[in-house]
Amino acid sequence: MSNEDQEIVLNLANPPRCARCSGETLFRAEFPHSWKNAAGQEVSGIRSADLCPACDRGEPSADALLALFAVDGQLGTGNMTVFTDLLGAWVDVVRNRVVDMERLDAEHEAWRRGELDDTSADPDGDAVR
Ligand SMILES: [Zn+2]
Fold first, then answer.
1. Which one of 10, 13, 35, 75 is separated from 106 by 20 to 30 angstroms, measured CA to CA?
2. What is the pTM of this model?
3. Residue spans of alpha helices (H) in 1-129
4. pLDDT at position 73 over 60
5. How far is the CA of 19 from the centre of ligand 1 (A)?
6. pLDDT surpasses 80 at 63
7. Long-range CB contacts (< 8 A, 24+ apart) of 10-13?
8. What residues are neighbours of ligand 1 (ion), with CB under 5 Å?
9. Distance 77 CA to ligand 1 centre (A)
10. How far is the centre of ligand 1, averaged over its atoms, from the C-alpha of 83 (Å)?
11. Residue 6 has pLDDT above 80, yes or no
12. Between 63 and 37, where is the model more confident?
């Protein structure tokens, strides 16, 4: 993750409501993100993720962020370093989650177009991977 642009943009003042439960979120983070599409081409863009106290609870890096907000209430110079570390860890988790979903979508697309080699995707032919 060192040679990739890791700049994360935070919306703390007016984050959108959670897309999953429509509750209030703590913030929205936007981060650069790249992945390979079904054709193996590198695609890059900006992804965003909201930290929801209800939906994101249970994931360790999200819990750490939620705990920081619960204890400190707001961000200041005193906890900014800790926050930045926790945020980086959480964004890594979110980024991987997004990539997995995109990979799934890309594979599904390829499969619909008949581009997946069936014998390599399912070597024994019983449709169980
Ligand atoms: Zn939620």
1. 10
2. 0.67
3. 60-72, 80-112, 118-121
4. yes
5. 7
6. yes
7. 10/87, 12/75
8. 18, 20-21, 23, 52, 54-55
9. 28
10. 21
11. no
12. 63
